[in-house]
């Protein structure tokens, strides 16, 4: 049973984001499927809606600043008061993911690992020999090693796709509500299939997903609901009728025709 059952718009200030076409007749959005995909052109409001849900429900993110205090989330924090969220049961987990947070998160991880190793050297060089020095240096070095074990000696030495998949795997920790904003950005088609399998397995174990995407591969998740955010209110559409799917299929079938027109 989905944790978040409905999103109701109860107030409209006329200011952004309520000025977006998708919110003009938004009404009540029912989320009956384990996974709901938000599709549409850039700027239609997919990411904005995810931000509103994330701020209203206080979901954790790669960096808490992204939700609680980040200036780019201020609009979403204010807009959240114009919505009501119908929930059922207790949410035991959850996460808000957006690709823009990954680089900053990994930079912080590498910085923390380096700082712990430097702290260990400092203890060894400045403290008198004995159990206390060894204990302090060992704890600092162990913390740095823990970062390296989980994310690698240098997280940036690996491909973005590998890092994203590892982050998803680490964060899908159990039944919960997961908001993903264009998670396919760094992923090859093969890695998109790997992510699709993760989402399918997590949904089967009781998790709920709300995903903004342009990926026909992810949208093909069996049992998912696809909402067209280019219309108001957002309307469920079958996978075959999604514009991204139709354009991709047509291009792959006749690329020379599209290239001639371009």
Question: How many β strands by DSSP?
Answer: 9
Number of domains: 2
Beta-strand content estimate: 15-25%
User: What is the CA-CA span between the terminal residues?
Assistant: 46 Å
* Element string (H = helix, E = strand): EEEHHHEEHHHEHEHEEHH
> Structural class from helices and strands?
alpha/beta
- Main sheet makeup: 6 strands, mixed
Give the strand order, joined by hyphens, for the main sheet. Answer: 5-6-7-3-8-9
Average pLDDT, all residues: 83
Shape: globular
Task: Please describe what this structure looks like.
Helix 4 (about 100-125) runs antiparallel to helix 5 (about 130-150), helix 6 (about 160-170) runs parallel beside helix 7 and helix 9 packs across helix 10. With about 260 residues, the chain is α/β, with parallel strands linked by helices. The protein contains ten helices and nine strands. Helix content is about 45%, strand content about 15%. It has helices at about 45-55, 65-70, 75-80, 100-125, 130-150, 160-170, 190-205, 215-220, 245-255, 255-260, and strands spanning about 5-10, 30, 35-40, 85, 95-100, 175-180, 210, 225-230, 235. About 30% of the residues are buried. The chain folds into two domains: about 5-100 and about 175-260, Rossmann fold (3-Layer(aba) Sandwich); about 105-155. The termini are far apart.
